[in-house]
Amino acid sequence: MSDGAGSRMGVAGALGLSVTSSVAIVICNKYLISTLGFFFATTLTSWHLMVTFFTLYVAQRLRFFEPKPIDARTVISFGLLNGISIGLLNLCLGFNSVGFYQMTKLAIIPFTIVLETIFLNKKFSQSIKASLMVLLLGVGIASVTDLQLNLLGSIIAALTIAATCVGQIRRLKVSSTQLLYQSSPYQSAVLLVTGPFVDKLLTKRDVFAFNYTVEVVAFIALSCSIAVCVNFSTFLVIGTTSPVTYQVLGHLKTCLVLSFGYIILRDPFSARNVAGILIAIFGMGLYSYYSVAESRKKTEAAISLPVAAQMIEKDSAPLLGAKGSPRPENKSEDSFDYMPRTAKSAFTGR
């Protein structure tokens, strides 16, 4: 099998694992919330990250991978930033309407594009921008309802977008496993400390006073197990594609969750929801088509360049290029950019 075919299979596998695990965790967490009354999203996410770390620790002890030294200050700042991002996303939902919260999530894509353009000198074609606009329009029609504004909620939303985008485009030259293994303790620590307070602020309930029956504990354990796959696949998707592609995949999962709720759970559904989902899927199709086409053009251009020019191209390769685009080949160290799943998104498939 050629390297190109293997890379495409790897990307497809990462995308498939991300979608499958996300749908599975939605089913599990919806039962936790709706049936068992466990509303403590931030605390649950801290447990997700903690279980993920211990799972990778066991894998490391069994020699499935070898830990590699990473600058401690960089990893700690990365973990703390992403932990803060998760907390802010939950506060954003708590202090804003659901519609405004959805708009905040939609705003992450254009702000990510702006940051990558300014700070990373990455170029986005007009075709890519147009397809993303169609996608965002469709998701907005399908998911955004009311748009109630307030000053505190707007400030939290702005901080949420900033923290999420900055954490998403951070560059760390380690593999997905290494990055997840070394950063998850810090993300978990932030949420373990702040989670109970955030949850109490948002739900008016105390996580420590909750009645933990055998059924509740069993579903929490199941949720944490699925979260290992969710977190790992998130790193894989960002590592093999780009933050913008990951956001597109997240909106696809939003559409799948809406469809799942209607078909299986008989949630209320309107013609507006259907139209929005269809527009979003069309936008995703356009984005995928133009991304693949541009990736092929870059690959063909690199092949046709003289060897010296290819060396220059590799040195200046974009940080978040598609898998098929020219970029530095390094088997032991790959550039991965990660935006963590939020506590709320663990309940909505994002």
UniProtKB/TrEMBL annotation:
- Domain of life of the organism encoding this protein: Eukaryota
Localisation per UniProt entry: Membrane
Cellular component (GO) terms are:
membrane
Q: Which UniProt keywords apply?
A: Membrane, Transmembrane, Transmembrane helix
Task: Kindly give the membrane topology term recorded for this protein.
Answer: Multi-pass membrane protein
In what residue span(s) does the Sugar phosphate transporter domain sit? 20-288
InterPro entries noted in UniProt: Sugar_P_trans_dom, TPT_transporter
Q: Which Pfam families match?
A: TPT (PF03151)
Annotated protein name in UniProt: Sugar phosphate transporter domain-containing protein
Species? Panicum virgatum (Blackwell switchgrass)
Phylogenetic lineage: Eukaryota, Viridiplantae, Streptophyta, Embryophyta, Tracheophyta
